[in-house]
Amino acid sequence: xxxxASAFVGLLRACAKKKDCCRGARIHADVLKRGFLDRNxxxxxxxxxxxxxxxxxxxxQELLDALHIRGVVAWTALIAGYTxxxxxxxxxxxxxxxxQEGIAADVVTFTCVLKACGTLGDFDKGKQIHDLISKQNxxxxxxxLGTALVDMYAKCGALVKAxxxxxxxxxxxxxxxxxxxxxxxQHEQGQNALDCFEHMQQEGLFPNAVxxxxxxxxxxxxxxxxxxxxxxxxIMKQDFLREDLSLGNALVDMYMKCGDLxxxxxxxxLLPIRDVISWSALIGGYAQQGQGQEALDCFEKMQIEGLxxxxxxLxxLLKACSSIGAADKGEKxxxxxxxxxxxxxxxxxxxxLVDMYAKCGALxxxxxxLNDLPVRNVISWSTLIAGYxxxxxxxxxxxxxxxxxQEGxxPNAVxxxxLLKACSSIGATEKGEEFHDDISRQGFFKNNVALGTALVDMYAKCGALxxxxxxxxxxxxxxxxxxxALIAGYxxxxYGEKALHCFxxxxxxxxSPDTITFSSVLNACSHSGLVGEGELIFDSMTREFGIKPxxxxxxxxxxxxxxxxxxxxxxxxxxKIPSLQSSPAVWLSLMGACKRWGDVNIGQWAxxxxxxxxxxxxxx
DNA sequence: CTAGGGTTAG
Length: 620
Prior knowledge:
620 residues, mainly alpha, elongated, DNA-binding
């Protein structure tokens, strides 16, 4: 290659590196003018690299296709470009073509191909590349390649393989540990991520900002706030927050996931720099915890700082509106979404809108939004079906499913869960049985306790208790929720003894009853007049299981005692728990008993107690 | 050419 050609190569490499496509194109024109492309394929290879790096992929591909002699540089540049700009499938196709032409891949090619495999989750292809690399002993002198290998396995979710690959590397640095830790954190194996975090430091390596970011994510997943705080201290000592936005955001998210919302907000307010993602983490956390108003307040503050919401922020805000039934605020968010034109690109956001209107009870609007969506999926439909089911509009839920099928979508396990709920809301046992058959045929009951519970609940609510019992027994596994559904079914239909029997069986199976189980059991006692049993169970609830009585528990006990004529005991239960005395349900239960036994005195007293909290806002 | 942050249906 002559001096002029190598000067062009140098210029093109510089433009490729800086992604300066404009200057690169001028050089391209110059190269053409002097006829270099005909005489010197090396210059042409770097032209491919220029366009690939700048993301002008069709142009890069076109140039490569036109070359008669093309080597590893051009192929690798194109593969790297496709991978970087998210066309990993194309990257792998290029790799295959390169192989067919007999061009040997080098470490850079392999690194890029591994990244493409990881992004696609293509384990088989990744493994095949790994074998090639091992055969050529390429891992001995290239840290980048080793990292790419660990990262590929980690992204495919093959974490044992990833860990093994890391162990076998001749030398390990922070970055390859980060790849593994990230993999564990992203696949919800928080403890393994934190173990690696320790292990890495035992090897004498210091965590950097990325390591801390991933470790914080892991803490959030397993709710380990102590570890999270320790990492927070370390970050402050090293003053990492000043230069790293992601790290601050991970910190906010960690406190949110660990349930310390106040601390999360405090951290955000003290961040030296924050962006829309920082606020989204906070808004998302509040929305998740059902604190919709706080989420909306954060949105105000974020806007005052001059930041605009993106589709993730808006998704969180919709959830916030749903949680407090704020359809008016939700409509404002809807307007913003339309203004930004986001419905075209974000199906998640569209589904969030359907959910918001549905949860606010505006089902006609939810349906209209769904109809107007440019793209829909099974989640869009399931959301609407869930909305109808929640509002007791079972018939509409079922007709939605029919329309969904006409559009070519098949119901999945979640859809069926909603549909079963729809059946229970209208007592549609026969339709429920049809769904039961469909679900069994498709094997959805395996590994899905929630679906099984919905089935038991459907039969139980419809009063088909023998079928509920049979469905329950056929489930591969049952948790507390599932048992509670069965117990509630027996309770509701007056089979108190059976409910109590289930309650005991459940505990014999090693499961501890929760608040809801006790609601059902006490309800069973009160419906069946099992005074002694109810009293014992109510007592054990706090003493043995540490569960504080709620309104439903107390109302059941008052009904139980009251029905049996023990008005004194009913009054006693209420008086023991002052925090529940503002609940009308408790007093209504007592007044019912007074009416039955003709006790005017207690009845009048109960009435006064019930009315007082209702009158206070009016009087003052 | 290698590692990191926020999000839809039960």
